[in-house]
Design a protein that fits this description.
The structure holds 2 protein chains of 2 kinds.
Chain A lengths: L2 E14 L8 H9 L11 E14 L3 E5 L6 H8 L7 E6 L3 E4 L12 H11 L4 H15 L14 H13 L5 E5 L7 H16 L3 E5 L3 H7 L2 E6 L2 E7 H16 L2 E3 L6 E2 L4 E9 L9 E2 L4 E9 L3 E2 L1 E9 L4 E6 L9 E2 L2 E9 L7 E11 L5 E14 L49
Parallel strand pairs in A: 3-7, 3-8, 5-6, 6-7, 13-21
Antiparallel strand pairs in A: 1-2, 1-4, 8-9, 10-12, 11-21, 12-14, 14-19, 15-18, 16-17, 16-20, 20-21
Helix pairs in contact in A: 3-4, 3-5, 4-5
Chain B lengths: L2 H9 L1 H15 L9 H20 L9 H23 L1 H4 L1 H6 L6 H27 L11 H25 L2 H15 L15 H4 L3 H13 L7 H25 L3 H4 L1
Helix pairs in contact in B: 2-7, 3-4, 3-7, 4-7, 4-8, 4-9, 4-11, 8-9, 8-11, 8-12, 11-12
Classes of the chains: A alpha+beta, B mainly alpha.
């Protein structure tokens, strides 16, 4: 196997300047006349987006890159695709690189679908001849043949996306770099895209893939690099790296939410939430909350004076802001005649957390019984991270593309004429790129 | 600037045509007059200047009818100033391209210079019509016009590269460009003949490469005017210097475009 990408001690420093904040005319004239804008550099702060990153990739390898937002993944891809240059260190690349950091790069609203195919293909490094040869295939893949001679400003965002990915899927580089393009689009289209990438991988092409879709990373990549704070935290087999990554993400975030310094807080504060804990049924702090797990939510409060007839409740929202559910002691008809001053907690037991894997936020409140008088109200103060789980015991992951909630359920095939009666399950060995 | 840099440019050369093609497509899309604008712009200037300077101020024009005298200077000038205006913002307008994909960055301003040539050609064809109308007989000097055009393109690309790269870091450029174009126009003998300028100032004005370009154009078309080889050589040298300065600044600045834009 030959090495196609060698990254050696790569670092990238960004300036986050305050030099340009002058908005008033007099100050800017002074600055202009004294030419001080040429000397202002030292006031700027710098951050290291990447620090001493080294690794190499072999031909035909598919490498996944994971990490939190702002960890340096995108910076790494931008350097590898030569969009920006490193502050220090070297990158050696052997072969053509095509980078898909965005779908439909270079699309212009006023140009037609067909014109944009040529423009986009050319920007991504295809020759006009090559695009011409693949035009039919691209058009078919996109599924927008009827609107090919319409300016894309009349396209829906979905159509634009399909057109963009159709061009990208027909690129023929030695090395393909893909960033998070699959985060958009409907489930059927995402599946199509993943299949296209699977085909590229089969074609002995080297692929670098950055995504938050950990299931897709695990399916597509044998090897995975986890980047944290601009450095490589782990480099190894995808399964191991993803597991370690998930452990770190959830361990820190979900078990306890400290609310002492919560923002977006309202109310007179005579009683306040201190923290929310997520516990397992036997009272242990739960590091990872998986879809379908039983969970106990423990709401800690501190009251500075006696509170009569309070109602305590919360809402759960998706990260798109959709309200999933609202509940409170008032909804349950529970009367709390008096809370004594001091600290205490309430537990809410949930037998089966039937939320699809995703990130949710919670808003909490303590009001009087009628809900008109607010003691404490925190908007989106608690993050609830629900991890993927083998929900239906089928070996298939479900995620946010399958919706927001699921219900405990069971298929019954006894009324069908299906042969080979049994559990009705496929053998788990039959591998599918995505369970949809 | 190694050989690889030029290899890269060669490998991507089709993209240059695509940028120019896109610019042309977009410029006249949804415009009722379409490509006629390429003529309307210098023509309107000609009518205006003929009225104000030719008729009212009785500006001399080296024995050539004032309309064709000014139009002849306005065609290359329109090319130069239009390209400058568009090229200087070509990088910032396409910031999402620069942030998301690699390609030789100079193709964006250079594509504008290439696209502008279409307008220049249309304007020139109209100029031929004017020459027929005014019974101007072309001479062998016309054969020198490709050289003048070459100098014009070289200068235009050079200034475009400089302004486009500067505009990425200092958005002030956007505001300064119309001003620059205006001053530059009056420093070039477009609406007045070079012969109007006192002899002792001419060596300084010759440092403005547009001076040689406009003069050269007239000398190519009107047999009565001498073709000043010394002036042409100065303009050519200046254009080369401007191009090298622009290209060098661009080359050094382009590495950080994606970070600053």
């Amino acid at each position: 196997m030959s090495i196609v990408i060698t990254v050696n001690q790569l670092s990238k420093q960004y300036r986050i300047g305050h030099a340009d904040e002058i908005t008033n005319v007099r100050e800017s004239l002074v600055k202009l006349l004294t030419l001080s804008f040429l000397r202002d550099r030292q006031r700027e702060e710098t951050i290291w987006a990447l620090r001493d990153v080294s690794f190499s990739i072999e031909r035909g390898e598919t490498l996944g890159i994971i990490g939190r937002n702002g960890a340096g993944k995108s910076t790494l891809l931008k350097i590898l695709s030569r969009i920006t240059s490193p502050t220090s260190g070297t990158v050696k690349v052997d072969g053509n690189v095509a980078a898909l950091l965005e779908v439909g790069t270079g699309f212009h609203q006023e140009l037609t679908g067909r014109e944009n195919i040529f423009m986009n293909g050319s920007i991504l490094g295809m020759s006009k001849k090559e695009v011409g040869q693949k035009l039919d295939a691209i058009i078919e893949f996109s599924g927008v043949e009827k609107f090919l001679d319409t300016p894309i400003k009349r396209y829906s965002s979905g159509m634009r996306l399909r057109l963009g990915f159709a061009v990208a899927a027909h690129l023929n580089p030695d090395i393909l770099i893909v960033d998070e393009v699959l985060a958009v689009g409907d489930a059927a289209f995402q599946k199509k895209c993943l299949n296209a990438m699977e085909n590229m991988r089969a074609g002995a092409r080297t692929v670098l893939f950055v995504s938050h879709n950990l299931a897709a990373v695990e399916n597509l990549c044998q090897r995975c690099i986890w980047i944290d704070g601009g450095q490589i935290r782990m480099d190894g087999e995808s399964r191991d790296v993803i597991q370690a990554y998930m452990g770190s993400v959830t361990g820190g975030q979900s078990a306890v939410s400290d609310l002492q310094n919560a923002e977006n807080r309202k109310g007179n504060g005579k009683i306040r939430f201190c923290k929310v804990e997520f516990l397992s049924r036997d009272g242990e702090a739960q590091g990872i909350i998986c879809a379908g797990d039983p969970v106990v939510m423990r709401f800690h409060y501190a009251a500075s004076e006696p509170i009569a007839h309070p109602s305590i409740g919360f809402r759960i929202y998706t990260d798109m802001g959709t309200l999933v559910t609202e509940t409170s002691t008032w909804h349950h008809g529970i009367a709390i005649p008096l809370l004594e001053p001091g600290e205490g907690y309430l537990d809410l037991e949930i037998g089966c957390l039937n939320l699809m894997p995703a990130r949710y936020s919670m808003s909490l409140w303590i009001t009087d019984m009628t809900g008109t008088f607010v003691y404490d109200n925190i908007e989106h103060g608690v993050t609830l991270e629900v991890e993927k789980a083998n929900i239906y015991q089928s070996g298939r992951d479900l995620d946010s593309r399958c919706g927001i909630v699921f219900f405990p359920q069971k298929w019954d095939l006894s009324g069908t004429l299906a042969s080979g009666q049994g559990t009705g399950k496929h053998p788990p060995s039959q591998r599918e790129p995505l369970a949809l | 600037m190694g050989i690889d840099y030029f290899k890269e440019i060669w490998r991507y050369r089709e993209l240059l045509y695509f940028f120019a093609w896109r610019e042309i497509k977009l410029r006249y899309r949804q415009a009722a007059f379409g490509a006629a604008w390429a003529v309307i712009q210098p023509l309107f200037g000609m009518v205006l200047f003929t009225f104000v300077f030719g008729r009212m101020a009785r500006m001399p024009s080296d024995g050539i009818p004032y309309p064709i005298f000014s139009y002849c200077g306005l065609v290359p000038w329109t090319y130069f100033s239009n390209v400058l205006g568009m090229a200087s913002s070509s990088l910032t307008v396409n910031s999402s391209l620069i942030e998301n994909v690699y390609f030789p960055r100079m193709f964006l301003p250079a594509g504008m210079a290439l696209a502008g040539l279409l307008d220049f050609a249309v304007g020139s064809v109209f100029l031929v019509g004017l020459m027929v109308y005014y019974h101007v007989r072309a001479s062998w000097a016309l054969l020198l016009s490709p050289l003048v055009i070459l100098i014009m393109i070289l200068l235009t690309i050079g200034v475009s590269l400089l302004l486009a790269a500067l505009n990425v870091r200092y958005r002030d450029v956007k505001h300064a460009v119309p001003f620059l174009i205006q001053v530059w126009m009056f420093a070039t003998p477009i609406i007045y003949p070079a012969s109007l300028v006192p002899e002792r100032y001419r060596p300084f004005l010759a440092l403005n490469p547009c001076w040689g370009i406009v003069n050269g154009f007239r000398a190519c078309l009107f047999p009565g005017l001498p073709f000043d080889m010394k002036l042409m050589a100065t303009s050519m040298a200046m254009a080369v210097v401007v191009f090298l300065v622009g290209a060098n600044y661009f080359y050094r600045a382009e590495k950080s475009f994606a970070d600053v834009i």
